[in-house]
Amino acid sequence: MLLYHSLSFCFVHAYPKAVIFANAGGRFQFTNEECQEVAEGCRRPLGRFDPILPAPSGGMKVDRVPEMRKSFGDDTLFLIGGDLFKQGPDLEEDARLFLNSAGRNSVNNVSDDEKDMSSLEIITTQDMASSSIEEVERVANAVRRRVLEYTLMNNGGYLSQACSSAEILATLYLRSLRLGPSVAASIPSPFRGSPGPGVDTITGEGHNGDPTDPKLDRLIFSPVHYALPLYSLLVEIGRLDIKAFESYNKDGSTVELIGAEHSPGRKSWHIMCFFF
Question: What is residue 262's DSSP assignment?
Answer without folding.
Answer: T
